[in-house]
Amino acid sequence: MRRYRPTTRLNIEEWVPRTRLGKLIQEGKITSIEEVFIEGLPLREPEIVDVLLPDLQEEVININLVQKQTDAGEKSRFKAIVAVGNRDGYVGLGSGKARQVRTAIEKAAINARLKITPIRRGCGSWECGCGKPHSLPFQVEGKCGGVRLVIIPGPRGLGLVAGEVAKIILGLAGIKDCWTRSYGPTRTVPSFAHAVFDALKKSYELVTPADWVR
């Protein structure tokens, strides 16, 4: 697996917002990404994420050569899957295709920024009960294709009991301790990575009693 360090960060100084959300951020009316998700505003510009999450990190999950049969013959392109996150409750996963590897990675990184989502963290393990956000508050399950993944909260000090791909995505999301159970063709890296991302997204979809006061 190839590691990739953040070199696709966009030039914020030359950024000209094209959406209402981008203009609000440039005018200083929105200063945090939490406000974006609370208001339910769509992310349509990757520069928005770079402005609101300046410490964003990237990791290349997978790169494959895909071929398409056309009338002129076979058309080959590279498909890259990239995960982004700030290791503090925000993670995104995207894919991109291009004739060159670097271009495919850049497209995937932009797509991952547009799909970034908050993750609800907590201490849902009965063995711990410390109350710190080192794991998930409850068990979640994600699916993609024939792959199904279950993430189970773990006590502090356990670490990430998961495969290499899952460890990268969970680490970027800020999860430090958990167990995972996977079912199906887990060697299919794209499906497995999106199953992990789907499980993490579901942690934010469920409203817990702690959120009722808000």
Structural account:
With 214 residues, this protein is of the alpha+beta class. It folds into two domains: 99 residues, Double Stranded RNA Binding Domain (2-Layer Sandwich); 70 residues, Ribosomal Protein S5, domain 2 (2-Layer Sandwich), CATH 3.30.230.10. Helices cover 29% and strands 27% of the residues. A four-stranded antiparallel β-sheet has the order 1-2-3-4. A four-stranded mixed β-sheet has the order 5-6-8-7. Strand 2 and strand 3 form a beta hairpin. The termini are far apart.
Question: How are the SSEs ordered, and which strands pair?
Answer:
Layout: H1 20-26, H2 33-39, H3 46-52, E1 57-70, E2 73-85, E3 90-98, H4 101-114, E4 117-118, E5 140-144, E6 147-153, E7 160-161, H5 164-173, E8 178-183, H6 189-205
Parallel strand pairs: 7-8
Antiparallel strand pairs: 1-2, 2-3, 3-4, 5-6, 6-8
Helix pairs in contact: 5-6
In summary, what is this structure?
The chain is an alpha+beta fold and 214 residues long.
Q: Which band does the percent of strand residues land in? A: 25-35%
What is the CATH architecture annotation of the largest domain? 2-Layer Sandwich
Q: Tell me, what's the shape?
A: flat
How are strands sequenced across the largest beta sheet?
1-2-3-4
Number of strands: 8
Q: Counting H and I runs of at least 4 residues, what is the number of helices? A: 6
Number of structurally distinct domains: 2
Overall helicity? 25-40%
CATH class of the largest domain: Alpha Beta
Q: Which class do the helix and strand fractions yield? A: alpha+beta
Spatial separation of the terminal alpha carbons: 42 Å
Q: SSE order in H/E notation? A: HHHEEEHEEEEHEH
The pLDDT mean sits at 88
